[in-house]
Amino acid sequence: MTDATPGRAAKPPARRLKDLIYSEFFRTVIYQIALAGAVVLLGFYLYQNVVENLSRQNIATGFGFLKEVSQFEIGETLISYSSRDTYGRALLVGLMNTLSVSAAGIVVATVIGFSIGIMRVSSNWLLQRIALTYVEIVRNIPVILQVIFWAAVIRNLPAPRQALELWGLGFLSNRGLTFLLPVADPAHAWMLAALGIGIVAALIAARLARRHREATGRYIDMLWPSVGLILGLPLLTWLAFGAPHELSFPERQGFNFRGGATISPEFVALMAGIALYSSGFIAEIVRAGIQATPRGQVEAARSIALRPRFILRYVVLPQALRVIVPPLTSQYVSLIKNSSIAVVIGYPDLVNIGNTVMNQTGQAVEAIAVMMVVYLIVSLVTSIAMNFYNRLVAIKER
Amino acid sequence: MTQTAPTPPLAAQTATAAEPVIQMKNVSKWYGQFQVLHEVSLDVAKGERVVVCGPSGSGKSTLIRCINRLEVHQSGDIFVNGLEMTDNVKNIDKIRRNIGMVFQNFNLFPHLTVLENLTLGPMLTRQMKKSAAEELAMHFLRKVRIPEQAQKYPLQLSGGQQQRVAIARSLCMEPEIMLFDEPTSALDPEMIKEVLDTMIELAESGMTMIVVTHEMGFARTVADQVVFMAEGRKIEAAPPEEFFGNPREERTRAFLDQILKH
Predict the structure, then answer these.
(1) Does A319 touch chain B (CB under 8 A)?
(2) Segment A99-127, tens digit of pLDDT
(3) Does B103 touch chain A (CB under 8 A)?
(4) What does pTM read for this prediction?
(5) Kind and range of the H or E element at B121?
C-alpha cells in the first residue's frame, strides 16, 4: 500500500495503525500466535491436572515401569520372551505381533483388492456381479463383527483328532492352520540368498531387455525368464546342496499336533477379518483408478495400434496408479490400526499387551501414551513410504 | 454386396489413384435403440481430402471413428486398402497402423514427455530402435514447428501446441490416412490458425485426410469433397465450390445459412 493521495498522507500515525490492524500479514501472525499460546496453556493445564491427581492417589509416574519384570506369559511371540522379561520387552512382543498380522493383512488385502477391483470393471457380466456382491458384503459389515465371525468359524472347526486334512500338506482345526515344513537345513539360508539374487537378477534382466528393445526395436517378453530366474536360482541351490528333502509332517498326537508349523487361530481370524474388510475398499479404489483414466487415453493408444497389454502397461496403469496410491495409503494405515481389534479375540497385539501392562502397573497414561506414539510412528512411516512412491508416479503439470 | 468399382468422386483432380483407399458401404450403427448411422456410404481416394460437417449429434464423429474401429459398425461394409474391417484382430491392427487419428481433446499421454509420446508407437508397434524413433519424432516435431518442446510434458504446453504434438504423434506411425475429429473445437481462437496451418501443410504433402470440422474456411481451401451429415444420414457430398455455392439440399442450405451468418 502506498500513500499516493496527499490528503491521506496528512494523518500519518492513524494511517499506520490502521494499516497494521487491517494488514493481512499482521492478522495471520497474530492469529497463529494466539492459537499456539492457547494450545500450550491447555496442554500445561492438562499435564498439571494429571500429575496432581496421580500424586494424590499415590500412583507412580514416568516410564520407569518399562524396565520392571512383567510376570506374565504371552501365547504367541516372534522374539524370545518369558514372564521374567520386562514390560518393555512385552510391549515389543506386542508390536511385533501387530506388525506381522498387519503385514500379512496388507499383502492379502492388496492381492484380493486388486483382483476384485479389476473384476469390477470387467466386461464379463458374471465376474462383475460377483465382484460387486463381494465388495458390498465385506465393506458394509463392521470389521469387528467380521473378525469375531472368523474367530467363531475357526473355533467351530473340528478338534485336531478330526481335523480337516489338506491334501496331505497340513490340517485345518480349531488349533489353527498346521502345515508341513521342511526340516531345518543349512541349504535354506543359501536358498533364501539365491531368491534375493534371483529377484535382483530378474530386475537387471528386465532393464537389459528394455535397453535391447530401445537399441534394436525388438521386444523381449521377460515374464517367463523372470519367473525362471526367481524360482530357478533357489531350486538350483537346493539341488547343489544335494536336494535335502526331509519334511516335518504334522502328526496328530494326543489333543494336538506334533511337527510342522502352526499359525494360531487368532492370527488367522484377525488377519482374515481385517484383510477381507480392507480388500473391499481397495477393490473400489482400484476400480476408481482404472475408471479415472479417460477413455480418450485408451482410444489414442489404440489409434497408434498399441497391443492391449502395452496399453495397460504403458498408458492405463501409470495413470491409474496416480489416482490409486493416495487412498491406498489411507487403507494401509487404517488396516494397521484396525489390527488393534485383536483385543476382542485374544490375539496378543500391542493393544492387548498394553492393556495387561496397564492393569498390572496402573500407569494408564504412560501405557496409552506408549501405544499411541507407536501407532503414530508406524502409520507415519507407512505414509512417508507411500508418499515417496506417489511422487515417483505423479504427473508433472508445470 | 455388389463389388462394382465405385466411380471416384468429383474430386478426382487431385486423387492419384482410382481405387479408393477407404470404402464404406451402407454402414449403420446403433447405440441401443438409437440409430446413429443410417446406411452411410463414402469412398475416399488416395490423396483425397474429405471434410465432413453437420450439426452436432449428426454422427460425423461416429462415422470416422468406425474407420479405425474405435466404434464398431453393426451393418454394412468398411474396407481400408482392400482389407475388410471385421472383428479380426490381425486386420484391425494392420488397418490401425495405417491410419493416424487426431482427437478433439488431443488425448496426449500426460505422464510421458512430448518426445516419449511420439516414440511410444514407433518403438512398441513398429519395433523401431529408440535412437531411430527419437530421430523420427524430432523430424515430425520440426514439421509441426515445436522441436524445442520435446522434453516438456503435454500439460505444460498450450492447447495449440498440444494439438500439434498430437498430429506429430500420429505422423510418427507414418500412416497413409489421417483422421481428424474436430481438431480445433477445443482450442482458443488464436490457436486455431496454427493447427489449421499444420493441417494445410499436411494436405499439401499429399496425405489422404478425412476431417470432421466446423472450419468452413478450411473446407473451402483444402477439401476435395465436402460431406454434409444430419441425423446419421449423409445428406450431400460435393466439391467445395458446388457445396458452398450451390447446395442441392434444403437441409444443407439451412445449415450453411446458420454457420456462415457471422
Answers:
(1) yes
(2) 999 999 999 999 999 999 989 988 789 99
(3) yes
(4) 0.72
(5) helix B114-124
Cα dist from B98 to A287, B49, B68, whole Å: 33, 16, 9
| Angle formed at CA B128 by CA B108 and CA B112, multiple of 5 degrees | 25
CA separation, residue A121 to residues A127, A128, A130, A322 (Å): 9, 7, 12, 18
What one-letter code names the amino acid at B189?
A: P
The answer to whether the Cβ–Cβ distance between B130 and A310 falls below 8 Å is no
Average pLDDT of the residues in A171-199: 81
Q: Which residues pair with B22 in a beta bridge?
A: B44, B80
B-chain CB neighbours of A294 within 8 Å are 107
What does the pLDDT look like over B204-239, one tens digit per residue? 999 999 999 999 999 999 999 999 999 999 999 999
For A178, the enclosing helix (H) or strand (E) is: strand A176-179
Q: Give the per-residue pLDDT at B9.
A: 45
Contact A117/A287 with Cβ under 8 angstroms? Answer: yes
The rounded distance, in Å, linking the Cα atoms of A157 and A271 is: 17
Give the per-residue pLDDT at A12.
56
> Do A324 and A286 meet the contact criterion of CB atoms below 8 Å apart?
yes
Listed in order, strand segments (DSSP E) in chain B are 20-31, 34-45, 49-53, 75-80, 83-84, 99-102, 177-181, 208-212, 225-230, 233-238
pLDDT in tens, A75-103: 888 888 888 888 999 999 999 999 999 99
Which chain A residues are closer than 8 Å to B123 by Cβ? 213-214, 217
Substitution target from A213, A303, A309, A317 for chain B, most B beta carbons within 10 A: A303
Dihedral, CA atoms, B152, B158, B160, B162, nearest 10 degrees? 30
Provide the pLDDT confidence category of residue A395 given band limits of 50, 70 and 90: low
The CA-based angle A310-A311-A316, given to 5 degrees, is 125
Residue in A258, A275, A201, A205 with CA at minimum distance from that of residue A233: A201
**DSSP assignment, residue A316?**
I
Write out pLDDT tens, residues B7-31. Answer: 444 444 444 445 799 999 999 999 9
Classify burial at B95, counting beta carbons within 10 Å of its beta carbon; exposed 0-12, middle 13-18, buried 19 or more. Answer: buried
State ipTM. Answer: 0.88
User: Residues of A with CB below 8 A from B109's CB?
Assistant: 297, 300-301, 315, 319
CA distance B175 to chain A (A): 10
Chain B touched by A52 (CB under 8 Å): no
CA dihedral A30, A33, A39, A41 (to 10 degrees): -100
Residue B43 neighbours by CB under 8 Å, 6+ apart: B6, B8, B9, B20, B22, B23, B24
Q: What's residue B230's pLDDT?
A: 92
How many angstroms separate the CA atoms of A49 and A365, rounded? 12
pLDDT of B70-100, one tens digit each? 999 999 999 999 899 888 888 999 999 999 9
Q: In chain A, pLDDT over 90 holds for what percent of residues?
A: 36
Q: Give the 3-state secondary structure of residue B133.
A: helix
* C-alpha dihedral, A208 to A212 to A215 to A216, nearest 10°: 180
Contacts of A297 in chain B (CB under 8 A): 107, 109
B135 touches chain A (CB under 8 A): no
Q: Please, which residues bridge with residue B226 across strands?
A: B51, B238
